[in-house]
Amino acid sequence: MKKAVLTLSAVALALSMAACSEKPVEPQKPIADTQAQQNVDNVLLAEFKGPYNGVPAFDKMSLADLKPALEKGMALNLAEIDEIANNPEPANFQNTIVEMERAGSELSRVFTYWGIWSSNKSSQEFREIQQEMAPVISSFRSKITQNKKLFERVKAVYESEELATLTSEEQRITWMTYNGFARNGATLNDEDKKRYADINQELASLHTQFSNNVLADEENYVLYLEQDQLAGLPESFVNAAAGMAEARDNKGKYAITNTRSSMDPFLTYSEDRALREKVWNTYYSRGDNGDEYDNNELIKKILTLRHERIKLLGYDNYAQWRLEDRMAKTPERAMDLMEKVWPAAIARVKEEVADMQAIADAEGANISIEPWDYRFYAEKVRKDKYALDSDEVKQYLQLDKLREAMFFVAGELFNFEFTPVAEGKVPVFHPDVKVWDVTDKTSGEHIGLWYLDPFARQGKRSGAWATTYRSYTTFDGKKTVLSSNNSNFVKGAEGEPTLISWDDAETYFHEFGHALHFLSANVAYPSSHSGVRDYTEFQSQLLERWLLTDEVINNYLVHYKTGEPIPQTLVTKIKNASTFNEGFKTTEYMSSAIMDLLYHTTDPAKIEPDSFERDELTRLGMPKEVVMRHRTTQFGHIFSGEGYAAAYYGYMWAEVLTSDAAEAFAEAPGGFYDKEVGDRLVKYLFSVRNAMDPEEAYRKFRGRDARVEALMRDRGFPVTSED
């Protein structure tokens, strides 16, 4: 779900690429020699060397090099930008837009390593550097967005007659570059520009502090259990918890870490209600404990600064500014989608709670269902209604086998083949990381590499995400892809496979969908990889659908002990229960999405985060048995950066596209492996990235706009109308 190497303050899409694009091999019209062309000796700045067109030197990265590399990389990039801005020749696409696309390769490589330290192997030493450098990086980016001469050249290209002669991709990246400047302060007067830049620096520090506070709470709160506290927990989970405890020097105990991958199964299976409540409270209190890591005041400051900044640009609220260039266009359209689905979601929660309460009453539990009971009793309802035991399903969901299934799907749809890279041939940043060579099955052409970092560990942020270390471009010679998937699965005990839940299996496919989006790219310029937030989740959500195809079920879902395929009776139960607990899942997500929009359409002066969250959810009729998927104080999507700020609704927007596109496959003669529909999928929905307007791309695939009714059918909600 999360795809970011480095989250920074608001920066133009095209300009962030100007700072992070790849270094040219053979420039078509090279700018004059500058310091940017000099050889560098810092490994974090150096060109990727070795096989596969060069790979990151993860085995040589040192934190001692990070700050000097950032400082030098920014200096080199600014020298390139100044040379573009001061070019005495009239501005045109080649000497302005293309040169901006070329600029900043050294800094791009530094950010690759920064992302590893930030997400995969954080430490106190890194966090201190991060806290110090975040505002410096923001200031650097403001120097680009506020370079008056550079903006005038970009504007000249955008308004030139030449624009009509460019390719559609070149026209789009010119528009994105111009729009990025205009939306990020380039048109302001000098005084307002300075304030705009100062706000960005302040926000960069606050975003970093927010993220580090959440990570601190995740690391500081670990619950160690004794043998007599394990009632109800599956054997695989117990073994994994023992391994986690031993890794933390508590051999003989069982560690429940403060992450979703540990919390979720514990709340599903533990029979100890008091412990469930404790684990639930600890997890959902991250950033909200009234201590040095509390995020409430940070949230107020972040919202206030964002509001002040967009007022400088003439917008009424932050969401209005954020959504202007997204598919939704306005916060009203985004909220309208939420309001269409919300009533059905909370109505379904009421039904789900009634089913759970009936079981609790029948067992003589003498309780009223609370949030820490929801997963536990939902599992009982699942068994009662569908005779479906989640732990039984888990025995057929081996991480390695699921990876093979994903490779199979990639081969059928994208014609990709994945071959393991021999250990030691490509440097990795942790022994758990494995690498595959991705080639075209027919021609054998090298497409790129796929890195996989699947397991939870200390210093790694929670959740699952995908990223790239290098993206596909052709404008300066073909650059192959370096893609990565990252998860936080609890590693199986020594000698045993890692077993995961059905939800985790869907997430595994989801993140692989992002990787396929990277690997299948067929664009010329770096800026074409800048995503439209309410669209970029669509491709990955869609890939989840292949997990339930017969080809995957029959060949890759086998019992981890016997090797026997999953019984058809169990498959039928899974399909019959496909909309089970949809009220809970939709409501916990949508409450976060709605609150995000409310935070960014409300005057910050009227917001106290704790009471605002509580009061608004009450007004919305939020069921007391469900909590936001991301409570405000731990909502990293929107407060540790701005990538999803006022845009978390995008998962739902993308889900409408997903459901509608899935029906296109379901209606096709070949089902989900139909050749014609699959070809359109790759051509219009994956390979074009952001080189084509997403709405236009979807219409080319489907022949029409997506319809929300498909989403309602998917979730088992009432469908009241049809276009």
TrEMBL record:
GO terms for molecular function: carboxypeptidase activity; metal ion binding; metalloendopeptidase activity. One of its GO terms (cellular component) is cytosol. GO terms for biological process: proteolysis. Its cofactor is Zn(2+). Pfam families: Peptidase_M3, TOP_N. Keywords: Hydrolase, Metal-binding, Metalloprotease, Protease, Signal, Zinc. InterPro entries: M3A_DCP (IPR034005), MetalloPept_cat_dom_sf (IPR024079), Neurolysin/TOP_dom2 (IPR024077), Neurolysin/TOP_N (IPR024080), OpdA_N (IPR045666), Pept_M3A_M3B (IPR045090), Pept_M3A_M3B_dom (IPR001567). Its EC number is 3.4.24.70. This is oligopeptidase A. Binds 1 zinc ion. Residues 80-193 form the Oligopeptidase A N-terminal domain. Residues 266-715 form the Peptidase M3A/M3B catalytic domain. It is an enzyme of class 3 (hydrolase). Belongs to the peptidase M3 family. Residues 1-21 form the signal peptide. It catalyses: Hydrolysis of oligopeptides, with broad specificity. Gly or Ala commonly occur as P1 or P1' residues, but more distant residues are also important, as is shown by the fact that Z-Gly-Pro-Gly-|-Gly-Pro-Ala is cleaved, but not Z-(Gly)(5).
